[in-house]
Specification:
Number of strands of chain A: 0
Helix content of chain A: over 70%
Order of helices and strands of chain A: HHHHHHHHHHHHHH
Strand content of chain B: 15-25%
Shape of chain A: globular
Oligomer: heterodimer
Shape of chain B: globular
Chain lengths: 349, 478
């Protein structure tokens, strides 16, 4: 039990040491690299704000992985879902033109949010659909869906929604009235960094899920299904219900990342806006052992690392952006691998 | 000269002592039975011999040489074979593939033994046994009984000297059990040493040369098989005398609860309806049929499943969660779980059923099999369902608990509730049932009143292929 709890942290430390050590071969001082990795998140208020923005996205993607994991599903389809929902939000933001009236704007925003979340949920339900009716493995379907949805989004952006005023592959900005988060108090406080009130939405989601898991029947049923689907079915728990519920909720959380980006940060869809939040979320979730409250902490930690890794490009001589991704990958790999290594040992004893 | 010597063997996991200071001699060529209640440490003791559990302190000597197995491979190399209580089979592969896999050692991981060769060897063994087993069938399509046969066959393939059998007859029919015991005696004639772990004292009495009794991790006594009676064994095991009295059968003129048209079977209120038969003869289909009908009629039913680990136990969930999942409507108030009530009621079940250790927050999977079963029975009876489906309710359970479960089922049916008892233990069916049916090759025969048929007749119904024996009793197909 104890080994299970500390294993991801051992993995984290191992990954950090390994990646810092690796930088030695690139002619950098491992100590310097370690310092940048671990301290660059609070260099300035703006930096901290940026880290909190990453935290927001990583909480959502961590939840999108952790929730299906409770139901025994290894859900890695978050990346595709967040891309397609970001595009949805951006498209709706340009297509809907509300009247100059607060109520009209509010309704429009509601429609944008609701439809974006719905698209997220639907795109994730595809995985459940294949699993329930064709017994397809969720990992395979999710991987394929990632490619399909990303390709679909790229095609739509370049061919249908390309911003006429930009050379970059991105959509036009959403309507002025939808950019109300541009000057919200968080942004102002953090010197106009990407962070927005979606941070609080993310925190709220964690608390809500924690509550649902521990205090309601459906929480217990999802967990039971994850541990023994046969026994769950015998007890009258419908596999269909659990699969669709957990995966479509995961899709909703993925979609929140799209909203965080489009309504809270850039106000448009840019191809490649996500530094693979969907996959970083796996590490976030594993680090927290799928504990919904723990995800807040591990998301912040991963956000700090992500911020640090991005800054390596600027702050060192030889490290490129790509190499910083290698470092991140090593850390994530170590964390994920430790989970299995330690659990295998535990089974043996 | 003793072949195996356990010297002051102790196994401790945390604060839990599974085996404590056990010293035991096992003679070459003997059938040595180890008996004891659930959680007495029998399985742990032989697992240490088989390299499957670490020894905390003490030594094992094999042929006077110190022997400290680190893995099952070590035991294998010392010609020790282990037949597990729970199956260790690759479910997606055929029976033959499983045999091929097990007859290859890790050292030759890149070469596979010829499956034709293995098939030949296996068929020789099967013939010797006079067992039937379709070796080309996928394991997950085999019945539990057939899987058990495969498991035993697998252990016998490498021609071991010492064979450990961990409750081998738990899932076998009486005839199959007799055959197995016969075979065990055969093995002994060929000079093999057999360690037999079982609850069935009758079997022990029939075959064992020496009998060791364990209680709460300690060795109580080792006696000669010839000089100890079944009653004495039972007493040594649980420390008190078990009196088995027959149930009083009521005349089932009671109200009709359910009519299973397909097998032409009427189930009445207040009766225990037994279903005898060798496993894999239509039990699972009957269970599905019953569950479907319970649901269709909206009956409030309890369900002691036929495969506890697969169908009842959730890996990491504690007892409280198991309680909640079953009795959801009782413990949900305004959409929220009433945790205080859950804890109180779960503790109540633990107390009533003497589940050890009585820790409601411990994962169910960490309890011993017998204690798991006691909890399951307590849970299913908790809210007094109209009808209880009890499939193998005492499988892998010790004598004391078995008696409790039997009494509870009887009390419960005399209160006007219905029990459908499905069991491969014929004694249990005859002991408890008011009426019973027999399943044979997916056909149902009966129903019979208690004492209507003698055991021999029932044995024929269970195992015979002869239409003349079966025809008069046939009532339906599953």
């Amino acid at each position: 039990m104890n080994a299970k709890l500390i294993s991801p942290w051992v993995g984290l430390v191992f990954g950090l040491v390994l990646s810092c050590g690796l930088s030695f071969f690139f002619g950098e001082s491992p100590v310097q690299v370690f310092k940048i990795l671990t301290t660059s998140f609070f260099n300035s208020k703006f930096d901290l704000g940026l880290t909190l923005f990453y935290t927001t996205c990583l909480i959502f993607s961590g939840l999108a992985f952790a929730l299906p994991m409770k139901a025994g599903l290894f859900h890695i389809g978050s990346e595709g879902q967040l891309i397609i929902s970001a595009l949805t939000a951006a498209y709706l933001g340009t297509a809907i033109a509300p009247f100059q009236h607060a109520a009209s704007v509010a309704i429009s925003v509601f429609v944008i949010v609701a439809l974006t979340l719905l698209i997220g949920a639907l795109s994730a339900s595809v995985i459940a659909l294949f699993k329930v009716y064709k017994q397809a493995h969720e990992v395979v379907v999710a991987i394929m869906m990632n490619f399909i949805l990303a390709a679909l989004a790229t095609w739509a952006t370049v061919n249908k929604l390309q911003s006429p005023t930009s050379q970059n592959p991105e959509t036009a900005l959403i309507g002025e009235s939808f950019q109300f988060l541009k000057n919200d108090f968080l942004k102002t406080y953090f010197e106009n960094s990407p962070v927005s009130v979606f941070l609080f939405v993310a925190l709220l989601c964690c608390v809500l899920l924690y509550f649902i898991e521990n205090r309601t029947l459906i929480g217990a049923q999802v967990r039971a299904f994850g541990q023994n689907p046969h026994a769950a079915e015998r007890l009258g728990i419908s596999p269909k219900k659990i699969l669709f519920l957990s995966l479509s909720l995961a899709g909703v959380f993925s979609a929140f990342i799209g909203l965080t980006e489009v309504l809270g940060n850039t106000f448009q869809y840019k191809i490649g806006f996500s530094p693979q939040y969907g996959f970083l979320g796996i590490a976030v979730s594993l680090l927290a052992q799928q504990n919904f409250i723990g995800i807040i902490g591990s998301a912040f930690l991963m956000a700090c690392l992500h911020k640090g890794a991005s800054d390596l490009d600027l702050e060192t001589e030889h490290m490129t952006r790509d190499f910083s991704r290698v470092l991140q990958a090593i850390i994530i790999f170590s964390v994920a691998a430790s989970y299995y290594i330690f659990n295998r040992k535990r089974d043996k004893s | 000269m003793s072949l195996i010597e356990f010297r002051n063997i102790t196994r401790q996991i945390g604060t839990c002592v599974a085996c404590s200071d056990v010293s035991l001699l096992i003679e070459k060529g003997h059938i040595h039975a180890i008996i004891g209640e659930n959680g007495a440490g029998k399985s742990t003791l032989v697992k240490m011999l088989g390299g499957l559990a670490e020894i905390t302190s003490g030594d094992i000597f094999l042929d006077s040489k110190k022997y400290r197995p680190r893995s099952a491979q070590d035991a294998f190399q010392n010609k020790i074979a282990f037949v597990h209580q729970h199956f260790v089979l690759a479910e997606q592969m055929t029976a033959l593939d499983n045999l091929v896999l097990s007859s290859n050692s890790d050292k030759s991981a890149l070469t596979l033994k010829n499956s034709g060769e293995v098939l030949k060897l296996a068929e020789i063994q099967l013939k010797k046994f006079n067992w039937k087993l379709n070796l080309n069938k996928r394991v997950d399509l085999l019945s539990v009984g057939e899987q058990q046969r495969l498991e035993i066959l697998k252990a016998l393939m490498p021609n071991p000297d010492i064979i450990i059998l961990d409750e081998p007859t738990a899932v076998l029919s009486p005839q199959e059990s007799d055959e197995l015991l016969e075979f065990i005696l055969q093995l002994k004639l060929h000079g093999k040493t057999i360690i037999l772990i079982t609850h069935k004292l009758g079997e022990v009495k029939k075959v064992a040369d020496r009998i060791s009794v364990l209680r709460q991790g300690k060795l109580i006594e080792t006696r000669d098989g010839a000089e100890v009676s079944i009653e004495e064994m039972a007493e040594l095991m649980i420390g008190r005398r078990v009196v088995r009295e027959s149930a009083q059968s009521i005349e089932a003129e009671a109200e009709l609860l359910l009519n299973l048209a397909r097998v032409n079977l009427k189930i009445h209120k207040g009766e225990i309806l037994g279903v005898a038969g060798i496993e894999g003869n239509g039990q699972s289909e009957l269970i599905q049929l019953l569950l479907k009908n319970f649901k269709k009629l909206g009956l409030h039913y309890g369900d002691i499943t036929e495969d506890r680990l697969k169908l009842s136990v959730f890996g990491d969930a504690d007892l409280i969660e198991h309680m909640l999942l079953k009795h959801k409507s009782i413990f949900i108030q305004n959409g929220l779980i009433n945790k205080a009530k859950l804890k109180i009621e779960t503790d109540q079940i633990l107390k009533e059923w003497d589940v050890r250790p009585p820790e409601a927050h411990k994962p169910l999977s960490e309890f011993s099999g017998g204690n798991q079963q006691k909890f399951m029975v307590g849970r299913e009876l908790y809210d007094k369902p109209q009808v209880l489906l009890a499939a193998h309710p005492t499988r892998g359970v010790d004598l004391g608990a078995q008696e409790n479960i039997h009494k509870a089922l009887m009390r419960y049916s005399r209160e006007g509730h219905t029990v459908v008892l499905i069991s491969s233990d014929l004694d249990e069916v005859l002991f408890l049932s008011d009426r019973f049916i027999v399943l044979n090759k997916h056909r149902a025969y009966g129903p019979f009143r208690k004492n209507e048929l003698n055991e021999q007749r029932i044995g024929l119904l269970m195992a015979s292929d002869n239409q003349a024996d079966l025809k008069p009793y046939w009532v339906g197909d599953l």
